[in-house]
Design a protein that fits this description.
The complex is a heterodimer of chains A (730) and B (968). Chain A is of the alpha+beta class and 730 residues long. Chain A folds into five domains: 2-41 and 183-330, Chitobiase, domain 2 (2-Layer Sandwich); 53-172, Galactose-binding domain-like (Jelly Rolls, Sandwich); 353-489, Jelly Rolls (Sandwich); 493-685, Chitobiase, domain 2 (2-Layer Sandwich); 692-719. Chain A has 14 helices and 36 strands. In chain A, α4 packs parallel to α7 (524-540) and α7 runs parallel beside α11. Chain A is flat. Chain B has a seven-stranded mixed β-sheet, sandwiched between helices. A six-stranded antiparallel β-barrel of chain B has the order 14-15-16-19-18-17. In chain B, strands 5-10-7 form a three-stranded mixed β-sheet. The chains are: A alpha+beta (730), B alpha+beta (968).
Chain lengths: 730, 968
């Protein structure tokens, strides 16, 4: 259970990065436009390697210490796979050469069935590999893989802390699957499957199919609704929007067809609209004509209203399953909230006080001599500034009764800095103890990680007596409470703040709405980009009722946060910003993308044109921001948008050795983006008087002395005069 | 006529004083403006109190403010109020820091100790606040003259008596009857409350004793009745003793009709001007219900008597009557102190008379009566010129008993009729009454302060979590400024450390009594304070001293334990030094208490009163036959009592055994006496003599002489506090008591006594018709009759003189240091860097580093154990050893690298000893490891390796102690 939770945590932390680096499946890596290759795939079983580091989110090798130690990993078998043969586990390991072969072993269990046991002897001490076949019949959707080692270096009583007692499972280990793709089930009741399979590895892949170059505004709006809901459902798996195509034949992943028959000619080919009345929508899940293992989702309507009804019905389907069968007609459907956020751990809520439960982190128990740290990611708003001495963490924890209170400790770290260490000697500790830890302002950041480490030692430890690590355990309860008083203000524009869940564009409780504004006549690439952003916003947003509007520039800039997707195509909103002088870099495309030889731009010039991201403050709404994502063409734009969800990419926007905030990033085809700061920055949000005073005084503390003296002088004078007026004397 | 010396401001900095004055005038226009401006001015103080600053800033600010306080104290003492806000801010800062950063929660014992100490400090802080409130401003009233025309109110004088010596009562009645007031308006009553039969035999009282006591009490009633008849005053006695003194007074109230009621305790003899100086307040303001005058005692209290500092060190009572009551009076909350006060009958009637059990159960009915009057909206006035004198307790036991009663009574009021909640009082009255009651709860906090150092030094309790050097930089400004503020507010009415002696003696008793009274307020009876007790031989009052003796022994044992601890716990040496200094301070005070408990003999039945009067002496009449040519000697008295006195006559005089002494005073009298001792001095002969038994009329004249002069008691004044001398005196107290004030100590004491007031008392010319009456100016010189125009002027506030500029060196040094720190001047910063890290809040926090070192210690212990096993073992195969060695060595390096164990280099100063110890352990383990390698290859020395291991173990133990890890 613990390892599963840890895996989940690790997955959440690393998901975007891993997802970006790793291909989703072998299909993704192997696929090509060559129809022969696709045909070849259909011939025989395909293979896929579930790599421990990439797919099971194992960031580093697992070290197993002590006399008896184990590690459990969870792997899945995707729903669309049919296994023609048993998968093979290829376990790479090494261990201490001092281990006695006849007394030390490594056992592999799958779903609690031991499938092999290997002697840990001198021969396999370095570079050992175990190839084990995993019987298919043991496998289920979710499977538990346990690696258990028994380690001995002597024939007699042993110290479990002996550093010689170690084995290491390499993260390069893998499980090799051979599989045949199953044909999809044409059943809408299963939605989001087959569009998204929670058992699959890597992100869900989706291709937007539109026969027409330009998409109608209604289709764009529907994409926003669908994207947001899909982003929510995919959660940490994320959703990758592939390059859009004009025909289904070119779609190499699951496909999405959105639009009315008038706007998207493919719709007419796929589903009949004859029975549809005005205002009615239709949703269909169909097999890909060339690859029955891929699905095509069609969202359409008799007219624009029907289309929107269909989109909303799809978005609400996880809670109100009204769709069934291959094709479903939608008569009544109203705009409703998208699916609830599945994001976990959640970002910190806006309240000062919140618990681990509020962060979506359940009780965590660790066991054994070398228990791993319990990690608590803390993600606050991009503009949050913890107040001095205003942050505390009250840990609620418990531990086993068999601990040596003299040696066992609880250690709390934040961002790698040890904050507190306390002996586990509380009388109530076996039930529930509390520890309040100050979170120093200097260490606490908007994106932080707290590590709670139990160093556990059994009481009256005797090497000759068997000590089960079941006896020594520590639990961190989900009632543990953060109390972080924070102010909200930031100097804007600052691209670096995007790393905090696309702050300030993420949809957060009470923080307004965001518009995604496309060009006046968006093409399918722009639409795919909008879909990608909508999915990302859905994934990141924890608000119950996020409102995200995807629209064309025809209706102007609006008064909400806005993300402008800009290409060379006419763009009303962008044009207005340009002409109004709101953009820091106005002028011709040449100036921005080609470089005109001026100082700053010269430095920012890139080898080949690609695009730029610029953030600016809304010209009319003071606390709103606009993100202009501009591509040399719409293909580049999509590429940039896909990069936007890469956390590391976002951090690179902020990565400035001088800690300067930047509001412009220029992308080239090669190399990292170049960032620079152009134009003026403004403070968004208000600094409370108390914080303002605090900051002022921290800089000019000597003023306090003068003020105290002055106040004392004046108070004394007032006191004297007042007392004498009352017939007294001071 | 001497003119008062009002300090004049001549410093070039005086213009600074003018600016605040102008601002104050601006601020005081309109109530809301005043409140707003005052509130705003408090903001910086609050900021300073709660702001978390790096040490450099903190130390610089502290030095700056301490320097400002010292400059005010030494150069502008008349502006002492400036120090109050500064001191309050510094103390609040300390308390805030203690409350938010230092409360230990490591284990139940430490937690309890920590909370107790913090509660005690919180109490001290609250009394500091209350003290400033009560003493920062004061009202010093002059007597209001009686009207020259118009009717005067009638006055009933009550002298309640219980079982005191009738001779003491006689003096009081005689003095009361000598008060100048129209006889038809004055009625004096002895309120005889002699215990009434049936008497109960006390435990362990023999039958004989019981019957003797019963007879004495019966006789006492008879004698008092006879006394009243002989003196011509009223006599009232009731059938029971219900409600003690308050019941007695209420009984009399129901049977007399005077407009005003004056109460004197049995031993309080008033001056003749008592009514003239107090009645005017009632005529002047009809809302005045109470006029209280100071209680003056013409004999020393047992502590000043036993420690030989009568007239040198102000007593507790002096502080109360000459500073606190004046402050109370400003806020219209001067208390009734049970005696020497005048009260309006109508007001008393309105509040149902003096407090009895019908109101609440309290043994300090006086304070509660005043509380009722104030709550009913009546005013009080405090006339600060002593107009009566009484007897202080003679024995430590009586003193303790009296204070226990006060403490119990005030705690009872606190519990049953808390002034903070009582309707009808103003906020200031609430605070003042609260302070009065709250003060008596000092016993428990004081015991905690006394026990804190032994608790740490002996029991290893840690009542303060944190780093002692950091604690000192918070505590020192707080203590220094609080001391400075108190010294400035109390001026010459309190000397440093002496209140600690008084309170420490009482602490064990008041702690118990107040705690009990708080929860069981109805327990406890009124006990009458015994006066006029005799003590034939010097003795140590073991019973009263026992609790403090135990504390003293604990302190001494701690003192012995401290050096051992100092050598053993290198990492805690700072804490041990501070705890020892604190312990030494406690021991000094406890020593003072021990000295105070060594009682001097009290053989004189009558207390001598210092009086310097002209006398003429000649042989007694019976010597006339022997010496027909009677010679007459002139001289001056030194002191006098009803029993005798001491005088000096011309040099070389040899007085006969029987003499007659003529006092050449306002009430001149000639009395027969016998000389006891004649001592030749360089310029005079000192004669001690004993009067022959006095007739009633002589007794009355002597009473008038001794007690009736209006200025009898106005001369009491003390030098300003000299903290070093005070500390020395307290520290030497046991010696002074044991050696009976040896000469070398006397020099110190006399040194203190010689310090003359820098501002003379205002002295008025003597009335030509009735002799010298300093302090009293009789407009029509009719004071000897019923003068209605007596004007007695309060002495002006005494302000210490400005100190010479040379004394500004210390504040200047503080200021320069503060500036150096503020600008970051390296040489100055380095001085403090040696003491503690100046950038704590920007680097790794102290706690964090300690946590890391804890981990390092744990890891090193594990590696040490492995190495020990390897050395003790039989040796491994070469391959096995290599594997072991690689792991072990890399682990050791990991620990050293990950935990940054490089000795003191780059470490925080406060963790340096621990870092050094851990680093030493690493080095020893490395050396031992190397030796193990050699052993493996057959060259090493197993003994040497073991020695190195032992050395590493010792270093680890040292580190463990530094980190507070218990060792097995």
């Amino acid at each position: 259970m613990l390892h599963a939770a840890l895996l989940l945590l690790a997955a959440l932390l690393c998901a975007p990065a891993a997802a970006q680096d790793a291909p989703a499946t072998d299909e993704a890596t192997d696929e090509s436009d060559d129809p022969k290759a696709r045909e070849a795939k259909k011939q025989g079983p395909q293979s896929f390697e579930v790599k421990f580091d990439e797919h099971l989110m194992l960031p580093s090798d697992v070290t197993l210490q002590g006399l008896l130690a184990y590690e459990t990993l969870t792997f899945t078998v995707p729903r669309s796979w049919e296994l023609p043969s048993d998968p093979v586990l290829e376990l790479n390991f090494e261990h201490s050469p001092q281990l006695l072969g006849d007394r030390s072993s490594l056992t592999v269990r799958v779903n609690d069935h031991a499938i092999t046991s290997i002697e840990l002897n001198r021969k396999n001490a370095v570079g050992g590999t175990a190839r084990v076949t995993i019987p298919r019949e043991l496998l289920d959707d979710y499977n538990k893989l346990t690696v258990l080692v028994t380690q001995h270096v002597t024939e007699e009583c042993e110290d479990p802390f002996d550093p010689s007692l170690w084995s290491r499972v390499n993260k390069s280990s893998l499980i090799r699957f051979a599989y045949n793709p199953k044909p999809i089930t044409e059943e809408l009741l299963d939605y989001p499957f087959p569009l998204y399979d929670p058992l699959s590895y890597g992100p869900a892949e989706l291709t937007l199919v539109s026969a027409d170059d330009e998409l109608a505004p209604a289709a764009i709006e529907a994409l926003g609704v669908i994207g947001l809901s899909l982003g929510r459902i995919a959660g940490y798996h994320t959703l990758n929007v592939r390059e859009p195509v004009a025909t289904l034949a070119k779609a190499e992943t699951n496909a999405l067809v959105v639009g009315t028959p008038e706007d998207n000619r493919i719709v007419e080919k796929l589903v009949s609209q004859r029975n549809l009345n005005a205002g009615e929508g239709l949703i269909a899940v169909l097999p890909h004509p060339d690859d029955p293992s891929l699905a095509v989702l069609v969202v359409t309507g008799k007219d624009e209203a029907g289309l929107m009804k269909a989109a909303h019905a799809l978005a609400g389907h996880d809670r109100y399953p009204v769709l069934a069968g291959k094709v479903a007609k939608v008569r009544l459907s109203e705009s409703d909230d998208p699916p609830p956020s599945r994001r976990t751990p959640k970002p910190a809520p806006p309240d000062d006080v919140f618990t681990l439960e509020d962060l979506g982190i359940p009780d965590q128990t660790v066991r054994g001599f070398y228990s791993p740290p319990i990690r608590v990611p803390l993600q606050m708003e991009g503009d949050s500034k913890p107040r001095l001495d205003g942050a505390r963490l009250e840990l609620h924890y418990g531990y086993g009764a068999q601990l040596d209170t003299r040696l066992s400790t609880l250690e709390v770290r934040m961002n790698g800095v040890v904050l507190h260490s306390v002996a586990l000697n509380d009388e109530d500790g076996e039930q529930s103890a509390k520890l309040t830890v100050e979170l120093p302002q200097a260490v606490l950041e908007a994106r932080s990680e707290v590590e709670v480490i139990f160093h556990l030692f059994p009481v009256d430890f005797d090497p000759c007596r068997r000590v089960s690590d079941r006896m020594i355990w520590g639990t961190l309860f989900d009632s543990s409470e953060f109390n972080i008083r924070r102010d909200h203000y930031a100097m804007m524009p600052d691209l670096g703040l995007l790393q905090h869940d696309l702050w300030p564009f993420t949809l957060r409780e009470g923080k307004g709405e965001t518009d995604i504004i496309l060009s006046d006549a968006p093409d399918r690439y722009e639409a795919a980009a909008a879909l990608q952003i909508a999915a990302e916003m859905g994934r990141l947003s924890t608000e119950a009722s996020p409102r995200l509007a995807v629209r064309t520039a025809a209706s102007g800039l609006g008064t909400d946060h806005a993300i402008l997707l800009v290409t060379d195509a006419p763009h009303g909103a962008y044009g207005a910003l340009e002409s109004g002088g709101a953009l820091s870099l106005t002028g011709t495309d040449d100036r921005l993308l080609k470089g005109d030889g001026e100082g700053e731009l010269q430095q920012a010039a890139v080898d080949s044109d690609y695009g730029s991201i610029e953030e600016l403050l809304h010209p009319t709404a003071a606390d709103k921001a606009i993100l202009v994502m501009r591509g040399a063409d719409s293909e580049d734009l999509l590429g940039m948008v896909r990069g936007l969800k890469d956390v590391r990419g976002l951090i690179s926007l902020a990565a400035d050795p001088d800690q300067q905030t930047n509001n412009l990033a220029v992308f080239g085809q090669i190399g990292p983006p170049r960032t620079l700061s152009v134009g003026d920055r403004q403070q968004v949000g208000t600094i409370p008087l108390a914080s303002r005073v605090e900051q002022g005084l921290r800089k000019s503390w000597w003023l306090i002395g003068l003020m105290v003296l002055l106040a004392a002088l004046l108070l004394a004078a007032i006191g004297r005069l007042w007392a004498s007026g009352k017939g007294g004397r001071a | 006529m001497a003119t008062p010396q009002v300090p004049t401001t001549t410093s070039p900095l005086d213009w600074l004083v003018e600016l605040p004055q102008r601002f104050a005038r601006f601020a005081l226009v309109g109530r809301w403006r005043t409140r707003l401006i005052t509130g705003l001015l408090c903001v910086p103080l609050v900021l300073y109190a709660v702001a978390e600053l790096p040490p450099r800033a903190h130390i610089a600010l502290s030095l700056f403010l301490m320097s400002a306080g010292l400059i005010v104290a030494r150069r502008f003492p008349e502006h002492r109020l400036i120090v109050v806000p500064i001191s309050l801010a510094a103390s609040t800062r300390y308390i805030w820091w203690r409350g938010t950063h230092t409360l230990a929660t490591t284990n139940p014992a430490d937690t309890a100790a920590s909370l107790l100490l913090f509660a005690a400090e919180l109490y001290a802080w609250s009394t500091l606040l209350g003290g400033y409130f009560q003493t920062s401003v004061e009202k010093v009233r002059a007597p209001v003259p009686l009207p020259k025309t118009g009717p005067l109110p009638s006055v009933d004088v009550y002298i309640p008596t219980y079982d005191e010596d009738p001779q003491i009562l006689r003096t009081t009645v005689e003095a009361a009857m000598s008060m100048d007031y129209p006889s038809d308006k004055l009625a004096i009553y002895i309120l005889d409350d002699t215990p009434k039969p049936p008497y109960k035999q006390r435990p362990r009282e023999s039958k004989e004793d019981f019957s003797a006591r019963s007879k004495r009490l019966r006789d006492r009633m008879q004698s008092l009745r006879a006394l009243a008849r002989s003196l011509g005053c009223g006599y009232l006695a009731r059938k029971d003793n219900v409600d003690a003194k308050a019941g007695n007074l209420n009984f009399a109230m129901a049977r007399t009709r005077g407009d005003l009621i004056t109460v004197f305790d049995t031993d309080h003899a008033p001056t003749q001007s008592f009514l003239q100086t107090t009645i005017g307040f009632f005529i002047d303001d009809e809302e005045v219900a109470l006029v209280q005058t100071p209680h003056h005692f013409y004999n020393p209290d047992p502590i000043e008597r036993n420690l030989y500092h009568e007239g040198i060190v102000p007593t507790e009572g002096h502080l109360f009557y000459h500073r606190i009551q004046k402050g109370n009076d400003f806020w219209n909350s001067a208390f009734f102190c049970g005696s020497c006060a005048v009260m309006r009958r109508t007001a008393l009637d309105e509040v149902s008379g003096f407090t009895t059990s019908a109101d609440i159960h309290t043994v300090t009915e006086d304070a509660h009566t005043a509380l009722k009057l104030h709550a009913a909206g009546w005013k009080s006035a405090y006339m600060p010129i002593p107009q009566a004198a009484g007897l202080a307790t003679e024995r430590v036991a009586d003193h303790v008993g009296q204070r226990i009663r006060w403490a119990r009574g005030m705690a009872q009021i606190f519990a049953q009729d808390n002034p903070l909640l009582k309707p009808g009082l103003t906020l200031a009255q609430r605070l003042n009454y609260f302070n009065a009651a709250w003060h008596f709860f000092n016993g428990l906090p004081r015991l905690i302060f006394l026990m804190a150092p032994p608790a740490y030094l002996l029991l290893d309790l840690h009542p303060l979590l944190g780093y002692v050097r950091e604690a000192m930089i918070y505590a020192l400004p707080h203590l220094f400024l609080a001391w400075l503020g108190a010294a400035l507010m109390h001026r010459n009415t309190r000397h440093s450390f002496w209140p600690d002696v008084y309170e420490t003696l009482l602490a064990p008793y008041t702690a118990l009594v107040t705690t009990v009274a708080l929860f069981f307020p109805k327990l406890g009876k009124f006990n009458v304070t015994a006066k006029g007790a005799l003590l034939p031989e010097a003795r140590f009052d073991w019973r009263r001293a026992l609790p403090c003796l135990i504390l003293l022994v604990l302190g001494l044992v701690s003192l012995v334990a401290a050096p051992m601890k100092w050598f053993r716990y290198e990492a805690h040496q700072d804490t041990i030094v501070i705890a020892t200094l604190w312990n030494l301070l406690n021991l000094g005070i406890l020593g003072g208490v021990m000295g105070a408990c060594y009682e001097r003999p009290q053989r004189r039945r009558e207390h001598r009163v210092d009086r310097r009067w002209p006398v003429s002496v000649r042989a007694a009449p019976e010597r006339a036959a022997v010496e027909p040519e009677q010679r007459q000697w002139q001289g001056w008295t030194h002191n006098l009592s009803y029993g005798g006195g001491c005088m000096e006559v011309e040099r070389g005089a040899v007085l006969p055994k029987q003499i007659q002494v003529t006092l050449k005073t306002e009430y001149g009298i000639t009395l027969l006496a016998d000389t006891l001792e004649q001592t030749r001095l360089t310029d005079a002969t000192l004669v001690r003599f004993k009067f022959r038994p006095l007739s009633n009329s002589d007794h009355r004249v002597v009473t008038r002489n001794l007690f009736s002069s209006s200025d009898s008691w106005v001369h009491e004044d003390y030098a300003f506090d000299h903290p070093v001398r005070s500390a020395l005196l307290v520290a030497l107290s046991p010696l002074i008591a044991l050696l009976k004030k040896p000469r070398w100590v006397q020099r110190i004491i006399l040194g203190a006594a010689e310090e003359q007031p820098l501002v003379e008392l205002e002295v008025f010319e003597a009335c030509p018709s009735c002799g010298a009456v300093p302090q009293i100016a009789a407009e029509d010189c009719a004071i000897c009759e019923y003068s209605l125009a007596t004007r007695l002027t309060s002495p002006p506030v005494r302000v210490p003189a400005r100190k010479p500029l040379a004394t500004m060196l210390i504040p200047a040094l503080f200021l320069i240091t503060a500036l150096g720190l503020a600008v970051g001047y390296k040489p100055v910063v380095n001085v403090f860097e040696f003491y503690m890290s100046m950038e704590r809040w920007t680097a790794v926090p102290f706690q964090t580093r300690v946590a890391e070192l804890n981990q390092a210690h744990r890891e090193l212990r594990a590696l040490h154990r492995q190495l020990g096993e390897a050395i003790a073992g039989e040796g491994l195969a070469a391959d096995d050893f290599d594997a072991f060695w690689n792991d072990w060595e890399s682990n050791l390096l990991d620990v050293q690298r990950n935990r940054a164990l490089y000795g003191e280099a780059g470490s925080r100063v406060e963790t340096a000893p621990t870092e050094r110890a851990l680093y030493a352990a690493v080095l020893s383990m490395k050396a031992a490891g190397t030796e193990l390698q050699d052993i493996q290859s057959g060259r090493g020395d197993r003994v040497l390796a073991s020695d190195l291991l032992l050395s590493a173990n010792a270093s680890l133990d040292e580190a463990a102690e530094g980190l507070g890890i218990p060792l097995r």
